Amino acid sequence: MTETKLPESELLDLATRALHGGGMREEDAAQTARVLVLADMFGVRTHGISRVAQYLGRVRVGGIDARAEVQVARMAPGVSMVDGRNGIGPLVGMKALEAAMQSAREVGIGAAFASGSNHFGPISPYSWLAAEEGFASMIGSNATTTIAPWGGSDARLGNSPLGFGVPGGDGAHFMLDMAMSVVARAKIRNALKAGQSIPDTWGTDKAGRPTTDPKAALDGFLQPIGGHKGYGLALVVDLFAGLLSNAAYLTHVKSWVDAPDEPQNLGHFFILIDTRRLGSAAWLVERMRDFADILHGSPAADPGKPVIVPGEIELRNMARQRAEGVRLDPAVLALLRQRAAAAG
Amino acid sequence: MTETKLPESELLDLATRALHGGGMREEDAAQTARVLVLADMFGVRTHGISRVAQYLGRVRVGGIDARAEVQVARMAPGVSMVDGRNGIGPLVGMKALEAAMQSAREVGIGAAFASGSNHFGPISPYSWLAAEEGFASMIGSNATTTIAPWGGSDARLGNSPLGFGVPGGDGAHFMLDMAMSVVARAKIRNALKAGQSIPDTWGTDKAGRPTTDPKAALDGFLQPIGGHKGYGLALVVDLFAGLLSNAAYLTHVKSWVDAPDEPQNLGHFFILIDTRRLGSAAWLVERMRDFADILHGSPAADPGKPVIVPGEIELRNMARQRAEGVRLDPAVLALLRQRAAAAG
């Protein structure tokens, strides 16, 4: 497939107009576009502007309300609850991020618990926006159920994403954005296509038993990292993102594939810490540089693959795409242009 | 080995007297004993009162200051920094827990970052104490370096523990307390003794290459859960517990085995959320019960092993030992008695 490139600002403008054309208010569309374009900048294209069509498809069937007015309630100086009113996920995410930032500015730490939301994109854009303002972050979302409880045999929890960020000097932020499964489903599908078996830690068959057969794993469930440990972590994310936020959790989360016209009521949590309350900017910059230097200093087990620190790949992608333009699938670009044109 | 049992209150009293005998002020000894006895109550005996001798051994060689006056500085309404002054770990942990609780009471969420600390026991006692007061918690500590960076070939990060808690009704709290390695070293040692090979996800040889040979793994490094994901999570714990707290981090953490007379300068973080700001007690109890019911409802892959929710084993151990007394290794008990007698 040939590829095309657009400068970041043009892509932002185009995505904003497409989302506005899909029914969002212009400023809401701009905030949503910001998250999705950052995902593309970081190279997380599966969660970037390619999602606009999917989001707007759900708007059309009534599964998401493009004009939702997200409500933010301050429960305490450090804690907000955000009701997304079934709005577009990244918009709810941005409102929650802002609420947590505001609390963190005031009292040093802030949390926002969001309910009534939808797929909010990847976590790294939020971590990056927080880090750019000097905030360390812990952010998570629940998700449609695709994982069985450890030792169980049906899907009762989501492959929930969890992310963290710590500001570094000159934009060299630490950013970790991970889901709870050992591998993504796509990797198992690739093994099946290639006729290869898979490690027995990737998935279980539909009876919940570990399997090396990619076909059986695709009919079964993804395994969480570290077995019972990843199961526990996935539950933690659902507890903070779903249960404490007053959103749906576990099997109460509706599948957007099976029920695209019903609200998912996903939940997210954002916990931000103002690092300037802990020490000077110079203190943090120096420690973060030293931290990365120590890790980079470990001799690589495979000389061709030096040790990296989480976030480095995303930041390198961003630097390159800022210089050269953002790589885009022409089909995705054509769809965006069509949507933007419809907006007039 | 035969075992003996003591009622919780007697064990608390005995451990307090032993720690007091080792040089701690009486109230500090009582707080430390509380953490360690809770560990034993939960069945985490490797991190319970059996550690008293180890802690006091380090006090004797000057590696820990039993009479340290832990300093708590409120940096913002929601954030404290705690300087453990090289005191006994669980004492520093308790002071940090209290500081974070106080902030959470006032502004809904509170963080405490501790430096100048030592091994602070397992995390579940802190999670439990927080949950008993209605706080959800995220707690972590860094540790001596035993893990290689992902793709690296020497030990540069610790097998850092990370824990979470959410209050449930009737004491049925969710509690997850995990380290970042797939398995503990002991499990690899057992495989070696049994002459068995190990899965290639447990450890690497000393060149950083995954191995199925337990001997090579013991000479090498533990692997983190989910490979690069667990590597990232271990870094997150060190960033929040060590780097942001102004403690040592990564290779700056001194080994208490190699340098027992030098301060380790370990760090911890405590983030507590007052769940009463999010909804009523009845609301939370109902949701937590439903959450557990959904998980328990998944048919077990192995009929003999029903699905459990993290924390259930520990709470069951506690209930049993409250009724029957706390199980103790007679050698550990004898040592405690000797220390307590020395205290006069």
List the helices and strands and how they pair.
Two copies of one chain form a homodimer.
Chain A: E1 4-6, H1 8-21, H2 26-41, H3 52-60, E2 71-76, E3 79-83, H4 89-107, E4 109-117, H5 124-132, E5 135-141, E6 145-147, E7 157-158, E8 162-166, E9 174-178, H6 185-193, E10 203-204, E11 210-211, H7 214-219, E12 221-222, H8 228-243, E13 266-274, H9 281-296, H10 312-324, E14 326-328, H11 330-342
Parallel strand pairs in A: 3-4
Antiparallel strand pairs in A: 1-14, 2-3, 4-13, 5-8, 5-13, 6-7, 8-9, 10-11, 10-12
Helix pairs in contact in A: 1-2, 1-11, 2-4
Describe the structure.
By secondary structure, chain A is of the alpha+beta class. Chain A has two domains: 4-169 and 224-279 and 326-342, Ribosomal Protein S8, Chain: A, domain 1; 181-223, Wheat Germ Agglutinin (Isolectin 2), domain 1 (2-Layer Sandwich), CATH 3.30.60. Helices cover 41% and strands 18% of the residues of chain A. In chain A, the strands form four sheets. Chain A has a seven-stranded mixed sheet, with helices on both faces. In chain A, helix 1 packs across helix 2 (26-41), helix 1 crosses helix 11 and helix 2 crosses helix 4 (89-107). The first copy, chain A, is globular, with a radius of gyration of 20 Å. Chains A and B meet through helix 4, strand 4, strand 9, helix 8 and strand 13 of A and helix 4, strand 4, strand 9, helix 8 and strand 13 of B.
